[in-house]
Amino acid sequence: MSYAPAPLLSEKDEAESAEGGIDPLGLYTFADALGVRLVPGVRERQTHPRFLTATAVSLAVCGEFDEETLAADHSTEPWLVFEWYLVEGLVRSSESKEETRGLPGSQKAAKAKDEKVPLAAKRNLKSPAIFGFHGIYRLLARTLGVETKSGSRLGEAGAELLSVWSKEQGLDGFIGTAGGLGQLLRRQWQDAVRDGLQNASTAKSPRSGWNAFREHLGIYNAGPNEKQFITKLLGGGEIGFRREVLDFLVSPCGREVWQAPVSERRFHEALRGGATDDLWQLHMIDSSNFTSAGLGIGRVKNVEANLVYLVNSQATDAWKILQNAWLPTEPIPNDVERQWQIPNDNCDDAPTDTLPLPVAFADATFGRDANGASDADASKGYLVLTFVGTPPPGWTLFAEDEIEPLFSETDWQARDCPSTLKLPWLRPRPPYAIRVQLGESGGSAWWPVNVENSDTLPPPDELKDLSLELLIEILTSAKPLHEVLRGRTKRKGKDDGQRRDAGALDPLDRVDSSAFLLQRTRRVSWALAALRKRLEEQPIVSEQSLAWRLRGPVGVLALAQAITNDAKESRSDAEQCFLLTELCAELARIRPSTTADSLPAARVRAALREIVGEIRAGISFQALDADPAMAEYVDTVFQEVVK
């Protein structure tokens, strides 16, 4: 039997931001797979179908630019520049905040407007390819044919949608070669994108004016023909149950259930009640135990995780497994009076001193100053505690299971009861939770600690300062990282025992080939080729994944640092320069692969160029003064790399 790993510290979820997202139970993979089967292309952040029209317009406007076109910041693509203009245009021209409710990036644009600065990458969403409207609706647009499967081009459905939209908006010529107001507007927006690429920001005012975005692409301003066409698109498709779910959602019963302040579970139950036979094959298995804590009727209430399985009725084996998962039961006759007697919370699964966390203890976030990201500077860590209202009297905070108090109500009152409190964190490892000792109740509660971002978390001890030989083994192995490390540990212990027993009688065992230039260079070459293959063949789905592959403990910078450390111990400076130059050359040759949900290739290439710049800055070119041939080779390589 195998078990899933325990949940890790997750990033802080901003309540007011579309960029937040936590998955403390690690169930997103299951939910996403079920969502793909149930409603293909639809995701939880999609609330305004008219962004499909905005996506189609963006594809038409940006279609004249080459796929490799980037802004002056060397990372922003044309579609993102158009997104800047659209978001800023809607924010500037809207008469009330209600008009921009649900617009990704509207808060960033409003802040830029208030500060009287143009919208640019550094003032926009951190991951626009995921959290901007293009990123949120890209999968749905490709599923419906608004955008081609390969991306960056207008699909057949997108061309039809543009035709309906342009006619209804009085923009003849927007699509095609005919003249008219539509052709003029498209050229004006293309000029605006071109200016945005040159300046890496929006212009003060596009020739079309800001109001044109609100007039033609306002979130709530779709015309009846456009609405009808989008509805037809969403209801089409032979795979999944998207039409059935959406039809129920807009029905009077569906609206009533969805808007009621209860739970999403009630919506699914109501949906199941009127669903077709195929949709009935959604089976939910609860983990709730039949106890006072599990049922939530005692002093201590558990948070229970539930799993949902989607099984077709024709899959008889899977169907039987689910049916047989139920334990043997004995029906209770209807005429028997049934009562539930709440125990005194003294059963095995009901802890006696762990209480629910009072709502006054809102957020606990761990962070680390930018210049204190290493273990050697752990004093730069801090905790930000947020309070809402007044906590129960007599509380004290402890760092996990420590005995010494971290902070108390007396300390809080001495600081005039601030709503936000920043405390230094002097320990090398961030806490997973703060234990809150509650005075009057005599029990304690756990205050979960989030992290500002994954970069603040130190690597595990097993991954700190890996040697060059171990990094080469990790990069060239097809096994998962943990299996390589485990195998290395077992093999090392076994080899040490054999050497002690046999005394290394085999003369070949006495030879250490790691110091041979040819073998050493060949092993590093294998590692570089494997590193390039991983970065090319595995799409990078998030900024965190990109940071792990480039800056993580087994990433590009770790390999560069290992080469540098290895050279300092037993290699020449010229050899170090050569190996680091080869590493940069491999990075420059990478052609990242992408999918509908991955980061754009341009974003990955920009990050690779940044890494190359950091590695190049660490190369000591003075060490090549005594080797003109090597110096000429290194200079030639970097001339090609920076092109």
Describe what this molecule looks like in 3D.
- By secondary structure, this protein is α+β, with helices and mostly antiparallel strands.
- 44% of the residues lie in helices and 8% in strands.
- The protein is built from 24 helices and 10 strands.
- Strands 7-4-3-10 form a 4-stranded mixed sheet, with no helix packed on it. A 4-stranded antiparallel sheet has the order 6-5-8-9.
- Strand 8 and strand 9 (444-448) form a beta hairpin.
- Helix 19 (517-537) packs parallel to helix 22.
- It is globular and about 95 Å long.
- Residues 1-8, 13-21, 371-379, 499-505 and 510-516 have low confidence and may be disordered.
Radius of gyration: 30 Å
Strand content: 5-15%
Mean pLDDT: 78
Q: State the helix count.
A: 24
Distance between the termini: 53 Å
**Percent helix range:** 40-55%
The number of E-state strands comes to: 10
Q: Report the structural category.
A: alpha+beta
In short:
With 643 residues, the chain is α+β, with helices and mostly antiparallel strands.
